[in-house]
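Regression test case RT-17, inverse folding.

Input:
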C-alpha cells in the first residue's frame, strides 16, 4: 500500500521499463542456432602462418616492448624482456614481420649490427631517435627465444638491390664470405634462417609512391638478385618472396593486383613471386582513425564489427583476380597488416599509435581469423598489426609492467587451428541489429587438427543475447566437449595493469548426446571447444 501510494503516474512508466529490462535480462530465452559439421569432408589447411605477427620500429613496439637492453632492471635475456618472451611462447607465433612497415623502406641494416651502432631518426614514427640497438642479431635472437620464424622486409624505397642482397648474404651464407665472417665476428657463426622475404612495403604510398608498373620492375630486380643461401627451411621450403600488394578494394588496388599477377603468369626462371601482400585496417570508415579504443558503447561496437567484415569481400575480390592468372593458387595472399586502428590514446604521442585493446578487439580478431580460415586455400599468411604496444597489440607494457590483451587470449585460444584442416560448418547465423546496423549474430569455423581432433570456434557477436548452439556432428562419435570462452561485462572492457583479469578466458563444457552437441554462449563472446571421441 505504502509502495503503491509512492508510485505516481509520472514514475510508473520508468519503473515499468526498468522491470521489463530486468526481466528480459534475467529470463531472456536464448535463441537457438543449429550448426552442422561433417568431419569427413576436410578442406584446405589453415596455414599456421595466418597467426603471424608484425613488429615494427614504431613507438614502444620494439624499444621497451621487446628490447630493454642487457643492463635493464627488467628481467631479460640478452636484452630481450623475459615476461614478453614467456607470454608470446604460449601463442606459438609462426612468424614475425620486421622491421616495418613504413620503417622498412628507410631501414639500413648495417646501422644495426656490430659493437658500434649508428644512431638514426625514425622519421616515419614521431621523429624519435632509433639507437639501432635492436638490429638483425637481436631480432633473430628474439624470434629464436619465442620459437618463431623470420619474415624480413627489405628496403626498396630508399635502399638498393645490392644493399638487400648483402643483407641476405650476411644473414644466410654458410660459406666463409666476408659478410658471413662479419656475422660470425658479431656473434653468430651459423647462418640464420629467413623463410619469408617482403620486398618493400606499401610501395604505392610510404614505400616510395610508385606506380604498379614501376614497383613491378623493382620487384623483379630484387627477386632476381636477393639470394637466400640457407634455404633448407622448415618443411624444406625455399624462401618465399612476397610482393607489395593492394591496400583496399577500389580500382586503383584491383589494377595493382592485375599488374603484378599478370606479370607473374608470364614470369621466367629469372624471377619468382610466392606471395602478394594485402593491407587492410578496420577504421570504421574514418581516416585518420577517430574511433575510441575504450570508453565507447554499442553504437561504436556494432559499426566497427560491421566494417571489419569487409575483409571477406576484399579478399574475395583480389582472390578472383589472382585466380585468373594463377588458378593453381601457387601465390599466397598475405594479409600482412590487419587489425583495428583507432584514435591515439589521449596524452600519448600520436606518432606511436597507442590504443587500448577491448573485448570488441577480441571479437574483431576472431571474425578476421575466421575469414582467413574460410579463404585458407589462398590466404596462407597474415600478420596482425602489431605485436606489442602498437595498434591492436597482444601485449601492453609500461616499464616493468606488462598486461595481456583480449586479442592475446583469442590468439591463444586459436592455437589448435594452426595447420589444422578446415571443415565446412553450415548454420543460419541469424542477425543482430543495433540502430540501422545489422550483422550476422553468429560466426563459426571448425577444423580437424594434425592429430585428428575436432575443434570448433563460435563467436556470439550479439552483445545482449545469449545463444543456444545445437551442433550436429557427422563422421565422428562425440563423447564430450569442453574448451574456453572469452567475454566480459561490457563491449569496451579492457585489461589494465591494475585489473589484468577483466577479459580472460573461462572454462566451458558442452553436453553431447546422440551425436548432438549443446552449448550456451554468452553475449559478445568468443568460444573454442574441442570434441573428445
Ligand atoms: O602499422 C602501421 C603502418 O601502417 C605501417 O607502417 C604501414 O605499412 C601501414 O600504413
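Golden output:
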Amino acid at each position: 500500500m505504502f509502495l503503491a501510494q509512492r508510485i505516481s503516474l509520472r514514475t510508473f512508466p520508468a519503473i515499468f521499463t526498468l522491470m521489463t529490462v530486468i526481466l528480459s535480462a534475467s529470463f531472456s530465452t536464448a535463441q537457438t542456432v543449429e550448426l552442422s559439421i561433417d568431419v569427413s569432408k576436410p578442406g584446405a589447411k589453415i596455414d599456421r602462418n595466418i597467426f603471424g605477427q608484425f613488429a615494427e620500429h614504431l613507438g614502444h613496439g620494439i624499444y621497451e616492448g621487446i628490447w630493454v637492453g642487457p643492463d635493464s632492471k627488467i628481467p631479460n635475456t640478452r636484452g630481450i624482456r623475459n615476461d614478453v618472451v614467456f607470454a608470446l611462447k604460449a601463442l606459438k607465433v609462426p612468424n614475425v614481420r620486421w622491421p616495418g612497415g613504413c620503417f622498412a623502406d628507410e631501414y639500413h641494416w648495417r646501422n644495426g649490427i656490430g659493437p658500434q651502432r649508428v644512431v638514426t631518426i625514425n622519421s616515419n614514427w614521431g621523429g624519435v631517435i632509433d639507437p639501432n640497438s635492436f638490429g638483425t642479431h637481436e631480432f633473430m635472437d628474439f624470434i629464436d627465444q619465442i620459437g618463431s620464424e623470420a619474415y624480413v622486409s627489405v628496403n626498396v624505397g630508399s635502399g638498393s638491390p645490392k644493399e638487400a642482397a648483402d643483407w641476405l648474404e650476411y644473414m644466410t651464407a654458410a660459406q666463409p664470405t666476408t659478410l658471413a665472417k662479419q656475422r660470425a665476428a658479431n656473434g653468430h657463426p651459423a647462418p640464420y634462417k629467413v623463410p619469408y622475404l617482403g620486398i618493400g612495403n606499401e610501395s604505392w604510398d610510404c614505400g616510395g609512391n610508385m606506380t604498379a608498373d614501376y614497383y613491378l620492375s623493382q620487384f623483379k630486380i630484387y627477386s632476381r638478385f636477393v639470394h637466400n643461401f640457407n634455404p633448407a627451411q622448415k618443411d624444406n621450403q625455399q624462401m618465399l618472396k612476397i610482393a607489395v600488394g593492394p591496400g583496399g578494394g577500389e580500382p586503383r588496388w584491383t589494377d595493382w593486383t592485375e599488374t603484378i599477377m599478370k606479370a607473374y603468369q608470364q614470369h621466367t626462371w629469372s624471377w619468382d613471386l610466392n606471395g602478394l601482400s594485402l593491407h587492410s585496417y578496420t577504421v570504421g570508415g574514418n581516416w585518420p582513425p577517430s574511433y575510441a579504443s575504450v570508453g565507447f558503447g554499442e553504437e561504436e561496437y556494432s559499426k566497427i564489427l560491421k566494417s571489419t567484415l569487409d575483409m571477406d569481400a576484399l579478399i574475395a575480390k583480389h582472390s578472383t583476380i589472382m585466380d585468373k592468372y594463377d588458378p593453381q593458387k601457387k601465390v599466397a595472399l598475405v594479409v600482412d597488416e590487419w587489425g583495428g586502428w583507432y584514435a591515439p590514446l589521449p596524452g600519448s604521442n600520436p606518432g606511436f599509435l597507442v590504443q587500448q585493446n577491448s573485448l570488441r578487439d577480441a571479437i574483431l580478431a576472431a571474425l578476421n581469423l575466421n575469414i582467413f580460415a574460410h579463404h585458407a586455400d589462398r590466404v596462407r599468411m597474415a600478420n596482425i598489426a602489431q605485436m606489442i604496444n602498437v595498434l591492436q597489440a597482444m601485449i601492453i607494457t609500461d616499464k616493468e609492467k606488462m598486461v595481456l590483451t583480449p586479442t592475446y587470449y583469442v590468439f591463444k585460444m586459436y592455437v589448435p587451428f594452426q595447420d589444422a584442416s578446415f571443415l565446412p560448418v553450415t548454420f543460419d547465423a541469424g542477425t543482430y541489429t543495433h540502430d540501422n546496423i545489422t550483422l550476422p549474430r553468429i560466426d563459426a569455423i571448425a577444423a580437424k587438427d594434425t592429430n585428428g581432433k575436432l575443434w570448433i570456434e563460435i563467436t556470439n557477436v550479439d552483445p545482449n543475447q545469449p545463444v543456444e548452439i545445437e551442433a550436429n556432428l557427422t563422421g565422428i562419435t562425440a563423447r564430450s566437449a569442453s574448451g574456453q570462452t572469452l567475454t566480459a561485462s561490457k563491449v569496451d572492457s579492457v585489461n589494465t595493469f591494475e585489473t589484468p583479469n577483466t577479459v580472460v578466458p573461462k572454462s566451458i563444457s558442452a553436453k553431447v548426446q546422440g551425436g548432438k552437441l549443446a552449448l550456451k554462449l554468452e553475449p559478445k563472446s568468443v568460444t573454442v571447444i574441442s570434441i573428445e571421441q
